[in-house]
Amino acid sequence: MNLSPLLTNSTADEYARTVHAVVERIAGQVRDCDAPFSGTAREVLERKVTSVDLDGSPIGTDRALDEVDALFVQDAVWFHHPAYAAHLNCPVAIPAVAAEAVLAAVNTSVDTYDQSTVGTYMERHLIGWTARRIGFDGGAGVFTSGGTQSNLHALFLAREHALSVHGSGVLAAAERSTLQQRMLVLATEHSHFSVQKSALLLGLGEGAVICVPTDRDGRMDADALRLTLDVIERTGRIAMAVVATAGTTDRGCIDPLRGVADACDSARTWMHVDAAYGGGLLVSPTRRHLLDGIERAHSVTVDFHKSFFQPVSSSAILVREAADLARSGWHADYLNPDDADEPNQVDTSLQTTRRFDALKLWTTLRALGADRIGAMFDRVLDLTVQVHRIVEDAPDLHLLARTDLSTVLFRYQHGGMSDLEADRLVPVIRAAMLASGRALVAKTVVDGRPCLKLTLLNPDTTAEDVRGVLAIVRATGERGLDSLRSLDLAEDRALLASGAVAR
Ligand SMILES: *Cc1c(COP(=O)(O)O)cnc(C)c1O
């Protein structure tokens, strides 16, 4: 009598009823969403969550979903809201969200052919499309969970490549380890932290990531790179890889890809381009040239869940030479034996069981076409140009860096404020804005000083919307300044009263 909770032949109607109800509910939530966040305090959220007894009596699907709504959906952060301008999160394309529902229900795992059949070819076709957009004609690649994994995978391939070039064939553990201790990765101080983390995971030595100097906007200096590569060669170290970033996370700057490629070619070093952020330029109708030179990389990271308007997770690593990716393979008798004659995606991935995330981008491309996606990213970049101008023209806002993409690094500081006060206000403003939930911004550090950051990734956001966010920054800043000053005053008085400060 009890209906199975599993999605099977006999429960298809129940599945449809349940999921339709959820979709209706989310549609209502999105329709009525008037702020990117409810502003509910962290302690309240924590208490709401920990008060749920996971060993308590089961409440059934409908009530469990009511609870999810009350507990999670009401207090989630909405990246599609025009006042959301904090991190690299995009609003998502409807065809992709629909495809997400398909892949969740079908539950394909893209590991061996006998688990993913046609999905194997769809992922490969889409990878081939991306590779051609990069300019990798015989390229290969695979979808990953995100830029962090794509970067790790790329640097793993670079390490294996370096071992094959510098080692003596089949490597004993000791030789491997000795070679790895000589390996260096060249990046910049603005590269993503996953480069450092990957070096650690890959067993490279302490201090293996060298920061190449940059120009004043934070782009890698290709001449300095060349000099650094020379020194590495002369001192008997191994330049395992150079990581150029096409869109640094904070500044949105693109390293000079051609200059980096020239230096890498002369030193015969693996060039990786981390285009997690700037990958959207691959389909830009007006700005594709910003990625010129990317086709000379050995490997490229693209995050579709940033500039292609895809739901998390959706990323890929691409390589110019398909043979390089083969180093990711590992053969298991039960899964993908050496003599398998079927195309097994697991041979190309760091993961085994893996989501069919490719279906989301596939559906989006078929629904909208590449130009439309690129035009949406272009709109974001045009908006950013406008916003930079707005910030530059405002006497109480200070633009701190230029961008090639869509970040705005700035500080709130009017004439009556000291530098120290402006610095101290940065975390105060960010936290107070999160606490109100009306608009969300991020904070970071530029040239050693804290600053606020907007990351624009919503093509439907207007300059007026951003003016609204900036107005909230100002109002929040003024309130923050008042309380900073009164706190300081109170502290001074307390110190005076205690006699700790000589009068
Ligand atoms: C976001 C980002 C990453 C990390 O990607 P995830 O998808 O968050 O793992 C790597 N590199 C750059 C330049 C990024 O902006």
From TrEMBL:
What are the BP-aspect GO terms?
carboxylic acid metabolic process
- Return the InterPro entries for the record: PyrdxlP-dep_de-COase, PyrdxlP-dep_Trfase, PyrdxlP-dep_Trfase_major, PyrdxlP-dep_Trfase_small
Keyword match NAD: no
Q: Which SUPFAM superfamilies match?
A: PLP-dependent transferases
Which top-rank group of organisms is this from? Bacteria
* UniProtKB keywords: Decarboxylase, Lyase, Pyridoxal phosphate
Report the GO molecular function annotations: aromatic-L-amino-acid decarboxylase activity; pyridoxal phosphate binding
One cellular-component annotation, GO? cytoplasm
| Cofactor dependency | pyridoxal 5'-phosphate
> Residues bearing N6-(pyridoxal phosphate)lysine?
306
Identify the Pfam families for this entry: Pyridoxal_deC
UniProt xrefs under Gene3D superfamilies: Aspartate Aminotransferase, domain 1, PLP-dependent transferases, Type I PLP-dependent aspartate aminotransferase-like (Major domain)
As for family, the record states: Belongs to the group II decarboxylase family.
Q: What is the recorded name of this protein? A: Pyridoxal-dependent decarboxylase
- Source species: Mumia zhuanghuii
